Amino acid sequence: MAGGSLAPAGVSKERAEQYQGKVTSYVIISCIIAAIGGSIFGYDIGISGGVTSMDGFLQKFFFTVYKNKLHAHENNYCKYNNQGLSAFTSSLYLAGLVASLVASPITRKYGRRASIICGGISFIIGATLNASAVNLALLILGRLMLGVGIGFGNQAIPLYLSEMAPTHLRGGLNMMFQLATTLGIFTANMINFGTEKLRPWGWRLSLGLAAAPALLMTVGGIFLPETPNSLIERGSKEKGKEVLQKIRGTENVHAELQDIIDASELANSIKHPFRNIFERRNRPQLVMAIFMPTFQILTGINSILFYAPVLFQSMGFGGHASLYSSALTGAVLASSTGSFYCNSG
């Protein structure tokens, strides 16, 4: 919302040069708590593939898959081909897609904190249902609740980070979300590596521990301030000014405050925002916004991360070796993201 490069969106380049403030501890703590939401998404990516490769889990819910797995030395082809197992893994993303569409107007109308808290509560419920599931219906219901939590969190948290961060550090602090995601993947891989030995109930611990970062995010969300941008968008200019002064550590926030007000008024004046996206002047940004994540996904890295233990087992790895290999993959991912974060900072 601020910065000279955003002048066409209602931000004054001259005023951007007058921004004052510092990185307060209030901003750092708020961003760390919010970025934990990224670890929720990462944890689920890493945990699901490991759980679906555990014998105790397969015996409980997918006995046919378990029998196919026992005959892997005879036929290692499509031993995980099961509609119920596919429903377990894919239901989260279907729910996340729908929840993202619902979360957008809620985030705009009720604020970023509301969506963060809703996402955290949904994820806690989902993790609890998964850990205590006694049948496939409860298991999939838990996955759907996890998807709702991810949909709300992934929609609101990056926006919250962007609006809380000072302009010159916005990119770096917002990258905390991605860093937390990769750390969540690695943590999940390591947990699976340990709980696989706790037979036959280790999978319950793996799924249940997903509630830990969600609980931290939910409790933190209760105490987090709303962003100045959100308050001003909803008509609370004085409250927005107070919060902006608090997070910037100075009372001289007139320049940034005015830019936020101008940008908010400009955004509210647009009657058909989604229709405007397709206007000729916005097409370069639209194309980049669509094709960059599309090409990233088409590399196949998401599938590899999600199904890593299953893929390794299908290649002939043992259960223990497949989880160990997945942990190594997660470690490389987390270290690479961390190195990039440090170098960019």
From TrEMBL:
It is a multi-pass membrane protein. InterPro entries: MFS_dom, MFS_STP/MST-like_plant, MFS_sugar_transport-like, MFS_trans_sf, STP/PLT_plant, Sugar/inositol_transpt, Sugar_transporter_CS. Coiled coil: none annotated. PROSITE patterns: MFS (PS50850), SUGAR_TRANSPORT_2 (PS00217). Keywords: Membrane, Sugar transport, Symport, Transmembrane, Transmembrane helix, Transport. Its main location: membrane. One of its GO terms (molecular function) is monosaccharide transmembrane transporter activity. It comes from the Eukaryota. It is found in: Membrane. The chain crosses the membrane at residues 23-43, 84-102, 114-134, 140-161, 173-191, 203-224, 286-309, 321-342. GO terms for cellular component: membrane. Pfam families: Sugar_tr. Residues 30-345 form the Major facilitator superfamily (MFS) profile domain. Belongs to the major facilitator superfamily. Sugar transporter (TC 2.A.1.1) family. Belongs to the major facilitator superfamily. Phosphate:H(+) symporter (TC 2.A.1.9) family. This is Major facilitator superfamily (MFS) profile domain-containing protein. It comes from Nyssa sinensis.
